[in-house]
Every structure is written in C-alpha cells, then in structure tokens.
Amino acid sequence: MTDTTSPVGRPIRSFVLRQGRMSIAQQRAYDQLQSVYGITYTPQAIDLNATYQRNAPKILEIGFGMGDATATIAAEHPENDYLGIEVHGPGVGSLLNQIEHRELHNLRIVQHDAVEVLRDMIPDHSLAGVHIFFPDPWHKKRHNKRRLIKPEFVALISQKLAIGGYLHCATDWEDYAIQILQVLSDEPTLINTATDYAPRPDYRPLTKFEQRGIRLGHGVWDIVFTKKA
Description:
alpha/beta; 8 helices; seven-stranded mixed β-sheet
C-alpha cells in the first residue's frame, strides 16, 4: 500500500509488490480503462474538483484490494467523490471493471505508493475522509515495523484532511487495533469519535471474508477519528 519513509535511512515498505496473474476481464479493464478512470502519479498537487468536474466531498481510500467495498461505497454514496490507491495490478483491474459495469462516475484510481500520492498530489485540507480498511497486519513481530499506521503517516493524512474530516481504519487483528488506536490518539490534530473503538459505520460494507470471520467468532475493530478545528 505504501512506503513508510523516514527522514533518514532506507524506506521500509508496508507492502510487497506481488502482481499475480490477472483474469481476462481484469486485464481487459486494465488495458482499456486505465486511461479513462486512472490518474497517473505526478509530483505536484492536482485540482480534485477539476478531476471529477464538480465540487463534492472527496474521500480517499488507501489499499482497496480487489475493490469490492470501494465500489459498493461509491455506488451507495453518489454525493461523494472517491479516490482509491492500490499498487497491485489485479486489484486495479478488478475495480476498473466494476467502475465500468456499475457506471461509477464518482470513482478514480491511482496505482502508486500512497505516501507519495498523499505527499505530492493531494492538496492540504482537501479531503472529507480517508479510509484504510484491513491494512496488511504484518503479524510476525519482526515485521511489525512494516505496518502502515505510524505516527508520521497519520500526521501526513491529518494534514490533508479538512476540519471535521475523518480518518477511518478497520482491522481484524487485535494487536494492530491497539496500535492504531494508540497512534491516532497520540496525533494532536485528531480526536476520537468514540471512547475507544467505534461501531462499524453504515457506509462500510461487510466483506465476505469479514462475514466468515464474524461467524467464526473473530473480532473486527473500527477506529474513527476526526480533524480538530
């Protein structure tokens, strides 16, 4: 999903670029629709209203996987504009296919590292919300340093949020939920919308994987903070 770049030393990637094989439908969508619904990374801020040709709340999703939840949210909330970031080609092809078939004119994709997209392309105070659903937990202790949710990354996200904008994280790993809650609580520009963990907001659909986990008694934790005035 992103590099966790530090001011000094080598960046530690929070993702491993496993492209995998695309299905025929994913490859077709990738080849034919990337130029229509994709936004090419550029090291300069973009005009989001011009990109979507309207003035509407802009919501960013980091690491959308195969894009099922992203497409559902965009379809159910046409009043918002959505920008999804993902590095893996099959997921990009899958979501491009859904954009076409569901006619999601309010959804665009950037296939690039999320830190660079946020840092370089997204204007400060321009986002109404940021979604990070089920980021890679890197559950082995020696790999915890690769986790996406770190203080410097959360500070960057907050910089891009408008006053009152929200950051919504969800994970099914309890130790990662504890870490996320602590990191967000330590960010002075954000405030928790709940005492600790939040109820799942109605806009976040349950995935098949999540439904199966719930049936097996697995926990899911939603953490939702907003930008202070």
